[in-house]
């Protein structure tokens, strides 16, 4: 059986629900969608996503990328994206796996490989799409296949994950991963700022505070933050606030005004305007639509 067919059948058997499905394998998530989804805003974790069937469109860093069966996406920092499944049917659903990147393991591998890794220069410095070679597909098959043998997961999953990351570090986007590990690299500085904003997004802040956290000047932070994410730190904070408010309304049944206050908005009217601008509908209409199409919540 060809690798892409075997991977597709494995994911189809284990991803039995619409949307994201956590697995007993650390950092591994499976995704299924039986119909095209609405464009959804989200923050994509540093990860690799391998599509086994269907197609996805992602907008990030002022680029629009389409990738499908035979392709994988690599994301190297917490990146706001607008994405949606564009090719899926009940008979041939969108099927994908996401493996979140273990930075410590990546660093260990780079040290052990002790070889220079070519620096790629993608137009977006935080993500890239590439064809998935058979070696990477075979490793992914063995990782997902552990779901049929749960007793083997603690022993074999770390070995297969290590192999997957090794293959990525030998692939065409090795430089994108390597920059995550380079001391004082601009991506690491920006990532420090991102981590601070993600922890404190509900609080007002000054650019000077974020610049100090990133160990950069204010002007340098603006320049490199925008280069990595195509937005300013304040725009990034706004996206986090609106996404968290959406989650609170959807999962905790909060009214819009309460959700807006919890994420840092003092003005309900401002919150409503910005929510509609971001998601295309007022909070109640937007959340009603999401509840009727849970597959739209797929992130990868």
The radius of gyration over CA amounts to: 20 Å
Number of domains: 3
CATH structural fold name of the largest domain: Jelly Rolls
Kindly state the number of beta strands.
Answer: 10
Shape: globular
> Count of helical segments?
12
Give the termini separation.
26 Å
Q: Low-confidence segments, ≥5 residues, pLDDT <50?
A: none
Spatial strand order of the main sheet: 1-2-9-4-7-10
**Elements, N to C (H/E):** HEEEEEEEEEHEHHHHHHHHHH
CATH homologous superfamily annotation of the largest domain: Jelly Rolls
Helix content: 40-55%
Largest sheet: 6 strands, antiparallel
CATH class of the largest domain: Mainly Beta
Q: pLDDT average, as an integer? A: 89
Q: Tell me the structural class.
A: alpha+beta
How much of the sequence is in beta strands?
Answer: 15-25%
- Named at the architecture level, the CATH assignment of the largest domain is Sandwich
Describe the structure.
- Keywords: Transcription, Transcription regulation.
- GO terms for molecular function: DNA-binding transcription factor activity; sequence-specific DNA binding.
- Pfam families: AraC_N, HTH_18.
- This protein is of the alpha+beta class and 300 residues long.
- It folds into three domains: 3-178, Jelly Rolls, CATH 2.60.120.10; 186-230; 235-297, Homeodomain-like (Arc Repressor Mutant, subunit A, Orthogonal Bundle), CATH 1.10.10.
- 47% of the residues lie in helices and 20% in strands.
- The chain has helices spanning 3-14, 103-113, 134-145, 153-169, 174-178, 186-200, 207-214, 218-229, 233-251, 256-262, 268-279, 283-292, and strands at residues 19-22, 28-33, 40-44, 47-53, 55-60, 63-68, 71-75, 79-87, 94-100, 127-131.
- It has a six-stranded antiparallel β-sheet with strand order 1-2-9-4-7-10.
- α6 (186-200) packs across α8 and α9 (233-251) packs across α10.
- The longest helix is centred in the C-terminal third of the chain and has 19 residues, at 233-251.
- The radius of gyration is 20 Å and the shape is globular.
- The model has no long low-confidence stretch (mean pLDDT 89).
